[in-house]
Amino acid sequence: MRFSLLAIFFAAALSTTSCQAVPAENAKPEPVYWELDQLAKIRGTVRGTTRESGPELEEQIDRLRKLADQSLARGPYSVTFKEEVPPSGDKHDYLSFSRYWWPDPAKPDGLPYIRHDGKVNNALRRRGDRDQIGKLSLSVEVYALAAYLFDEEKYANHAVKLIRTWFLDPKTKMNPHMKFGQGVPGRADGRGVGILDSRGFIRVLDAVDLLTSEGRYPQKDLEDLKKWFAEYLIWLRTSDLGKDEANASNNHGSWYAAQTARIALFVGETEIARDIVEQVQQQRIPEQFMKDGSQPAELKRTQSLHYSFFNLEALSVVARIGEKIGVNLWESTDSNPGLRPGIDFLMPYVLKQKEWTYQQMQEFSLSNGTVYLLRMASVRYEDAKYLDPIGKYPHRHPELDHALLLFRATE
Predict the structure, then answer these.
(1) What is the rounded CA–CA span in Å between residue 61 and residue 224?
(2) What is the DSSP string of 330-396?
(3) Residues 49, 134: contact at Cβ < 8 Å?
(4) Can you give the pTM of this predicted structure?
(5) What confidence category does residue 36 fall into, taking pLDDT thresholds of 50, 70 and 90?
(6) What's the pLDDT at 336?
């Protein structure tokens, strides 16, 4: 009943709205994952009102502007642009295939596919909408940050266009569910693990809140987008696939919690967000981490170091949401270990003080999310040691690294 009323509320709200942008003084949203105080400090640097400087910061600022300018000619993106039709027959349904599954060589047609953890089937991965959804979230992030830092409407306008095309335009919008995410030929049209594909929506919502805070996001679009995400939240919390992912004991369950809590905040359901964060604090973290901070569900993977950090990245998003609603996931208590033991377990290995003895098929590299996690940890635990691994490993996507723009670090 709660969700039906939620949907009715947003539907009713649409009939009384205009297309004017939200005045910044009347609506004061702010990013949840990104740190607004850091962004404001960097904007002051760009505009010459503060003195934050350094070659790395200047490089990230310049790179963001160049990336934003280059990307203005790209997109928009839509689930309807794919060639393959989902099992439903509706191209508005998101479609993707799981990356670690391969044809069975013992079967003439290869079906059903068999799993090789850590071995990516790029031909399968490229089918469907996975590339499109990734480009959407990365592009919207770039445009929103560029609009905020450089005060140029062209970036905000392009972000609005991309969001409208993916979520709102009746001709191109995605239906608010993931019924056909990460399917496996011969086994399943879609699985709960496909919900992981939409984790980039966390950044999209931070971008929307940042644009809205500056009066750069249209009011009608905002209300329609809240309606879309309210419907998606219903599906996430009530569908069998959503429940499967909620019950996952590994990084999939953590990213599900991060997504649902972030969406709940966006649509005004603070108590749902609080329930999710408290469940992570009281149940998920104690169950996922051993006393020494190790993560058994991630250590058994063929890319165990990568997935150990990947799970912590998800939990750091939940921790940021917790900061907004007064639930501290960073610090340990007698009953709740918090995130620090998990991070500290990995530190001797990424500082190259110990040899990683678990399976890691590929050379370890730092994702941008891991860099963000380490910067946050350095501040929350007032210890610069958490920054030391950042210079010791290659970065997976350095061209998209906005760490100095988005997150503080211990001096």
Answers:
(1) 32
(2) SS--SS---SHHHHHHHHHHHTTSS---S-B-S---B-HHHHHHHHHHHHHTT-GGGGGGGGTS-BS
(3) no
(4) 0.92
(5) very high
(6) 84
